[in-house]
């Protein structure tokens, strides 16, 4: 296939990643051929938005050029086996940060990984240009094709191996999911005292912003890093009715103090 | 004192909060009279920057109009006692989110709290206009003076009681300090595999940004909220050599799952 020819792209899955990828490709005037879901009704909803054909039988997918697997990690192996059975020959990539390339081993040299490091919600637009995309492939040729394909999304394209990508995903769980859970606990604490949760936003923004200029360990503030035992004790007392938050408070504070010993 | 008269402001302490308050007031052409530190050399460093007099004896501070106590929480009581001994009559406010107004009870009706909710680092500029300031005072008169004073910094001035302010500070520890520790763990995970830590920044920004549009609990993504037990198990296995991170991973994931039960 040449770089300029209109490639037929198909997507397996209709979740958040599938939806954002499909919508963006459609906006870029790329040709989306099939949207697959075991429920053809679910496939139809997304297919209608991107002028594609909804299917619930993988065998139909055989004439597509680029196939993106956007299903839960545990379902990738099964999809891979079915594609092998129908002798699928096109380029195929899974989109999971936490799944090794090796799960596609039965698909030969035309298999790879296309992993956009981003937090996907149905409701919110993705800033693709700032989203790093990680590619990995079984062959130089497949890698090259994935790279050209990735340029539809972002100029930040990186080649990392599976072990590195898995670390990146684990790191993202801490930096994104767990941070967000910290926000959630904070909002619940404020709700209990009828304090406006939006008041925390400038502080949250500043904390994220600081990271652009220094490492997190250097930016750390608060009672733990100051080794202010009085405040630490008072805060734990305030959390008496929420023992699970109290335990998180203790562990996080201990971790911060271990990173920055009292001078 | 009238609203327009040039008030003499003095600051007790030379730490991050003291420094940022003094520098901003000086930029606003406010008159900084004294900078106090038990080490006059330390006081001198900040005093030089804001054209103030460095002192190490609190008795000298008696002729100032507005006195800001910017010391560690545990030292506020001691400062308050000394000010009472010298019969200080001006307006005095501590700047701590985690200390009740009642610690200034020996200073009469001219005492209050001036608490800017912000994360202060020596190296980084403060966006004062977006910084909420929380005031509380023993008398309506003192509250009014603090409000006028706070307008030097921000238009976001809120009157909350001590209990609410303490909750806000506790919430800020979760939303800011603990989030930052999550970033720190993420960076350490990436360092071990030679992956560029800056790759996480767009995700971190997006996570903070999402909070402007929906509650944290609604924004949650990741393997825990998806109840993806396979990934959760794999991640914990990857953390075998970091048992303290492993425990944090478990607790945070359990907390996220308890908030958003499997449907």
Automatic annotation (TrEMBL), chains A, B:
Protein name, per record: Predicted oxidoreductase, contains short-chain dehydrogenase (SDR) and DUF2520 domains
Pfam families listed in its UniProt record: DUF2520, Shikimate_DH
Taxonomic source organism: Acinetobacter marinus
InterPro entries reported for this sequence: 6-PGluconate_DH-like_C_sf, DUF2520, NAD(P)-bd_dom_sf, Shikm_DH/Glu-tRNA_Rdtase, TM1727-like_C_sf
Keyword Iron-sulfur applies: no
Residue ranges annotated for the Quinate/shikimate 5-dehydrogenase/glutamyl-tRNA reductase domain, each copy included: 3-81
Keywords: NADP, Oxidoreductase
Residue ranges annotated for the DUF2520 domain, each copy included: 131-254
A molecular function (GO) term: oxidoreductase activity
């Amino acid at each position: 296939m040449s770089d300029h020819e209109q490639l037929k792209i198909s997507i397996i899955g209709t979740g958040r990643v599938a939806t954002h990828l499909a919508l963006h490709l459609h906006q870029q005037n790329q040709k989306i051929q099939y949207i697959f879901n075991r429920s053809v009704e679910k496939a139809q909803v997304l297919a209608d938005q991107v002028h594609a054909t909804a299917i619930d039988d993988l065998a139909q997918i055989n004439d597509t050029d680029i196939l993106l697997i956007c299903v839960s990690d545990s379902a990738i192996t099964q999809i891979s086996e079915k594609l092998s059975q129908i002798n699928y020959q096109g380029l195929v990539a899974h989109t999971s940060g936490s799944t090794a390339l090796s799960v596609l081993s039965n698909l030969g040299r035309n298999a790879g990984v296309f992993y956009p490091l981003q937090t996907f919600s149905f409701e919110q637009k993705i800033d693709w240009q700032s989203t790093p995309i990680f590619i990995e492939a079984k062959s130089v040729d497949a890698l090259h094709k994935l790279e050209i394909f990735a340029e539809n999304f972002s100029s930040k394209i990186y080649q990392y191996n599976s072990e590195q990508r898995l670390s990146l995903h684990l790191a993202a769980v801490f930096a994104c999911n767990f941070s967000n859970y910290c926000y959630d606990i904070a909002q619940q604490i404020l709700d209990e005292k009828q304090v406006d949760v939006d008041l925390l936003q400038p502080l949250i923004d500043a904390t994220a912003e600081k990271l652009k200029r220094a490492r997190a360990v250097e930016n750390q503030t608060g009672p733990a890093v100051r080794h202010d035992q009085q405040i630490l004790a008072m805060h734990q007392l305030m959390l008496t009715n929420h023992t699970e938050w109290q335990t998180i408070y203790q562990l996080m504070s201990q971790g911060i103090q271990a990173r920055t010993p009292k001078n």
